[in-house]
Amino acid sequence: MKGTRRRPGAALVVALALLAVPGVCPPAHADADAAPAFRDPDLPVAARVDDLLARLTLDEKVSLLHQYEPAIPRLGIGAFRTGTEALHGVAWLGKATVFPQAVGLASTWDPALIGRVGSAVGDEARGFQQERPDGWGLNLWAPVVNLLRDPRWGRNEEGYSEDPYLTGSISTAYGDGLTGGDPDHLKTAPTLKHYLANNNEAHRTTTSSDLRPRVLHEYDEAAFRPAIAADAATGVMSSYNLVNGRPNTVDPDLDDVVRGWTDKDLLNVTDAFAPGNLLPGNQDYYPTLTEGDAAALKAGIDSFTDNSADPGPTTTAVESALEQGLLKESDVDTAVSHILAVRVRLGEFDPGGGRYGSIDSSVIDSPAHRKLAREAATKAAVLLKNDKTLPLKASARNVAVVGPLADTLYTDWYSGTLPYAVTPQDGIAAKLGTPVASSEGADRITLRNTATGRYVTAGATADGAALKESAENGTASRFDVFDWGSGIVTLRSAANGKYVGYNWSGFVNDQVQPNGWYVQQQFVLERQDDGSSLLRYAGYETAESWWSNPVYLGPTGDDGTLGLVPKERAAHYDKDVVRSGVDEAVAAVKGRDAAVVVVGSMPSINGREDHDRTDMGLAPAQEALVEAVRAANPKTVVVVENSYPTTLGALQKKVPAVLWTTHAGQETGNALADLLYGDANPAGRLTQTWYASESDLPSILDYDIIKSDRTYQYFKGRPLYPFGHGLSYTSFRYGGLKRVDGGYEVSVTNTGARAGDEVVQLYTHQRTSRDKQPLKQLKAYARVSLKPGGTKTVRLGLRTEDLAHWDVTRSRPVVESGTYDVLVGASSSDIRARASLAVRGETIPPRDLTRATRAENFDDYAGVRLVDESKVRGTAVGATGDRAWLKFADARLGPGTGRFTARVAGTAGTVEVRLGAPTGTLLGTAHTDGTASPYSYETVSATMAAATGREDVYLVLSGGLRLSSFTLR
């Protein structure tokens, strides 16, 4: 049975397991064994785990529950640590191969490639482990499978897609590469982040994601299940947010659901600072760490990522929970057995480290991995628009590469350290074998104090110096200004090429790029009515949170050193443009065979962990740069290098060609050069809808994609670019669809003059249903390579069970009888072949409300939130205001129906039963005087007027009332 917890009585289990192995007898005294069973690679994993578990003292077992698991010298067991970041390469451990950001990897639509990337990352993690043996390395916190439901999410770069099927297939491929694909031996142990429904950073530890059952099962869970079910991941990380009012750190689905997807032991971990964030002052869910840790352990967490490297608070809390009876030793045994199962499979207790123990540091940034990074960066790029401008001809050698990202590569928070950097300018120059003209298109300015006439100056050495005002007006007083949108700019000193940032005491030009958890290299030049500007500091966790008001810059010392001052003391500066970035870029592109403009984002600024995007457009100065370059050179190609969909304004209409790429790692420039000059044919496809405007989106906190018409599945508007979109330098013709066993076949022919890849996508649509259905839903895809004139028959799997959706009337998946459209094409809106499929499934019967009905299983609603029925489990519905309502469609009311009974909690109020509408015929009203707490439920009832037939039943609630279940009898 999948998901079964390991039971207490480990010694008996060990004895039985050992007796089942010929020639092996159970040890009489485990600690005296010369070759203990847990070190025998020929024994089953469960037997080895049980043997080791039986040898551990309770204190030792408790010590293993923290992220930093200590060594146990008496057993010869070394330290172990959960959590090495490996999102698109091994991060934070030094120079390593940096592959495209995760959203870029998914844009390849190439699971085979992603599997190879995962395998390379797994190898490099092993290589680092050889260099850092004291617990570093092999439990990897990747991939991120949170769905990209909202493109404003600050961590958009970390996810794969807005679609659960695509996310599941890509995460399974990456995870399979990380694990090595061996069912009994792990190269590394990947952990899926972040369970569950974590797609906003604003107030991320206190906001609750409302997941009605259909959204929960059809959408969010559907992204996590595939990799776990395929044994391509060894656990999940609980996310910071709440779901339906309950923090995910204590979500019982970690055990009840996730462990049911596999028969392997899973090692589930908390995100950093949890369960500590369950306490007052944050989530305020449990009053003490003892209660919070106990609840998390019982919910299915095995390892606590709390208090950094200090396990003391965790071990103390767990020990206290054991003393108070909140936990049993068997609860600890269960969690520790999950941890040990993964450690056994990693080969830690095998001779030589097991199957993968010989992988050493020579694999890190190896030639093979560099080649793979270039292939991945090439396949990830998406050609959004092309009016016969690309590919550039080989004879187009007199080109210019301009823009703020033309000659730099940026890394993100979870990136590894680049071992080298091939910028777009570098790649094109290498392709042509000659230097190319270039300009960043950034203004170079001076800032002169209008009151004193003194200039802001920076240090000239590599380490920079504190900014101060001086009489000098030379290189030290010049700064390059980069616009990243929303008024945010960065200042790079012309004196040493370093960015200016706040270092907790002053402002110094010492940073290679904006970086850090607190990105302190951000400023706003606030234009004043008199034409001067104030220089406002705009670092993340802005100065307002440290001081009451001092968020502006001005001289604070006798020597003119700049510091933070209140607005009324801020210096007024004349901003003089010494060199116009636009003019320089225009001069660079005039008369050239082509102009390549590279614009986009700075990953630490425009949106990242803990900070959602506030603006989906391109930075105004960047857009102006593109327009000026386009006016100067009609053959302008725009490369947008960022981590998310961008509205692009009118830009995409004005330029002839637009190519999108993520921040694609060390080989970005070579990949772009290959694509622009046609040595590679672009075939990446968008994994998200690119909306035309932010007005197309509801609140980022609205998780109900069905009701709010989110993602390509339900969006009824016209996007800028649709899900699955991507152009090619060749063309493809599709034949008709042929039904075959297990799916469909379609022939695809390359009708152009170039070899290229096509991503063949299969969608379905259910024509009629009891429930609202997606407009289209991806069910299969294949990336195929074709030479000019070549034809391939592509098989796309589609089983009847793939057509299921969640039936809220019976709380299970259902395939409805009816006709389904099968749509195959080059994107969700470019359908080339179609067929209809008659399915004999079920007809969802009318609701039977005489049986206890969970309130959360409504069909529609207004004015309610989904809330926690208790702190342990269950979901209820809470009214956020008076006249909130729930709809239960197509209920069969019999002649005997005359009484309404409900389980309610919360404030005093009423529940009305109405027919047809929230204001329809009133059948009855139940009253409550309120309960002692939101978790104290009482049963209320009311006599109803007679009603028969099939009707839509509405329950209308008073504000503050919670409803868990009800019956009509």
Automatic annotation (TrEMBL):
Gene3D superfamilies xrefs: 2.60.120.380, Galactose-binding domain-like (2.60.120.260), Glycoside hydrolase family 3 C-terminal domain (3.40.50.1700), Glycoside hydrolase, family 3, N-terminal domain (3.20.20.300), Immunoglobulins (2.60.40.10)
Keyword Hydrolase found: yes
Transmembrane segments: none
Domain CBM6, first and last residues per copy: 850-969
Gene Ontology molecular functions: hydrolase activity
Alphabetic keyword roster: Hydrolase, Signal
This protein's record includes keyword Nucleotide-binding: no
Signal peptide: 1-30
SMART domains listed in its UniProt record: CBD_IV (SM00606), Fn3_like (SM01217)
Similarity comment text for this entry: Belongs to the glycosyl hydrolase 3 family.
Protein name: Glycoside hydrolase family 3 protein
UniProt source species: Streptomyces siamensis
